[in-house]
Specification:
The complex is a heterodimer of chains A (318) and B (77). Chain A has 16 helices and no strands. With 318 residues, chain A is mostly helical. Chain A has one domain. The two termini of chain A are 28 Å apart. Chain B has 77 residues and is α+β, with helices and mostly antiparallel strands. Chain B has one domain: Glutaredoxin. Helices cover 42% and strands 25% of the residues of chain B. A 4-stranded mixed β-sheet of chain B has the order 2-1-3-4. The longest helix of chain B is centred in the N-terminal third of the chain and has 17 residues. The chains are: A mainly alpha (318), B alpha+beta (77). Chains A and B meet through helix 3 and helix 5 of A and helix 2 of B.
């Protein structure tokens, strides 16, 4: 990234003629460097995953997961959730399709948890803003939670808590046209453009806030309230995050501010995961196929795992 | 021509409907638009993710929001 640093320095100091020591120069330098870096990472990651996505269609995922055993099935489901796009509105058709193809309930939940929480946008942004260690930690625990929570839900034998009509649906099998390489690349290009444009405003906002803080605000103003010293910070962050609905791009600017102001990393990541993985609109939509008891168990297990994750992180990283 | 928009009524389904209407207008096709929001019905058509677009009973796109130009191309086919 040396070239980028040089470029940012050149714009600020030579092009705009700012002094090395000025606060504004420092903030601007940081902003230009970070924006370019994160955008490059994001575009590369989104393109790569879009190509993978042309192979991992919902139809195939269902076939791969149908009739799988606990354990292997949960791991596979969580991993397949990463490249699959997810919007809470498509949670219902996805769920019905899984049940119809004989995917066990617990394995379906592993997928439903991993898919929104871990995706290429979250990975690219975390990588660009916090480095590979935090990114690896986020992906690793996200997968672990999806696998474990899915296994617990599978063990609880909650099949009766799914609305009856789901089991009655018999789907017409559609044949998928295989894509040519030209079509795959075309798809990758369109996806990259669409996703980068959609994420751009959040990203610029997040990096902008981060840059301002970097230049001006003394770090640590939040540390007393939400730093390591306060064990209640994690549960409160998760309880605030669960009903909120946003994607990784929307929540990262906030996470950036919280961390910069002194929130402990584990608390911040637990907050981020609870915002992305679970939301009130999603629960309301899932109510169409799940009875309230199952939704409550699902939300409860997830909230609990995020809290445990946050506490462990704070203990380990701290 | 009968065009169905399948989806729960979220932002991407509305965008899909808008794009499909634009595509038809640009091609000068008079089509009847229909919204399908009932999940049981959607599943009967065989789709596995929303939003999906159906033309004369055939699913031509699912799980994403194709652009106006892309829908025009698919309609011509």
């Amino acid at each position: 990234m040396g070239v980028l640093e040089d470029f940012a320095g050149w714009v600020v100091h030579s092009l705009l003629g700012m002094q090395q020591k000025e606060k504004l120069a420092e903030a601007l330098n940081f902003f230009i460097y970070d924006t370019i870096k994160v955008f490059l990472l994001l575009a590369a990651m989104v393109f790569l995953v879009a190509i993978v996505r042309t192979y991992v269609t919902p139809q195939r995922v269902r076939k791969w997961l149908g009739g799988r055993k606990e354990g292997v099935g949960n791991v596979l489901a969580a991993l397949l959730g990463v490249p699959t796009p997810f919007c809470s509105c498509s949670a219902v058709p996805l769920f019905i399709g899984f049940v119809e193809s004989g995917v066990p309930l617990g394995i379906t939940f592993s997928f439903l948890i991993a898919s929104p929480a871990i995706n290429e946008v979250a990975i690219a942004l975390l990588l660009g803003m916090f480095g590979w260690k935090i990114t690896a930690l986020y992906i690793g625990t996200g997968l672990a939670i999806a696998i474990a929570a899915g296994m617990i839900i599978g063990r609880l034998k909650l099949e009766g808590e799914v609305e009856e009509f789901v089991y009655k649906i018999r789907q017409k099998k559609l044949s998928e046209k295989p894509m040519s390489w030209k079509q795959r690349l075309e798809f990758g290009k369109t996806e990259t453009r669409d996703i980068v444009l959609r994420v751009a405003p959040f990203l610029v906002l997040g990096i902008g806030i981060g840059a301002l803080m970097h230049g001006y605000v003394p770090v640590g103003s939040l540390s007393e309230l939400a730093g390591m010293g306060n064990p209640l910070a994690v549960p409160i962050a998760v309880l605030v995050g669960v009903p909120l609905y946003s994607n990784a791009a929307g929540v990262l600017p906030i996470v950036q501010v919280l961390i910069d102001k002194g929130m402990a990393m584990g608390t911040a990541l637990a907050f981020m995961m609870s915002v992305t993985a679970l939301s009130l609109p999603e629960m309301i939509i899932l109510r169409k196929v799940l009875k309230p008891k199952l939704i409550a168990i699902f939300a409860g297990i997830l909230a609990l795992s995020f809290i445990v994750m946050g506490l462990i992180f704070n203990a380990v990283i701290g | 021509m009968n065009i169905k928009i399948l989806g729960g009524g979220c932002a991407s389904c509305r965008k899909l409907e808008e794009n499909a209407k634009k595509a038809c207008a640009e091609l000068g096709i008079g089509a009847k638009f229909e919204k399908v929001q009932d999940y049981a019905k959607m599943m009967e058509f065989g789709i596995s993710s929303t939003p999906a677009l159906m033309v004369d009973g055939k699913v031509i796109s699912e799980g994403r929001t194709p652009s106006v130009a892309e829908i025009k191309e698919m309609l011509v086919e």
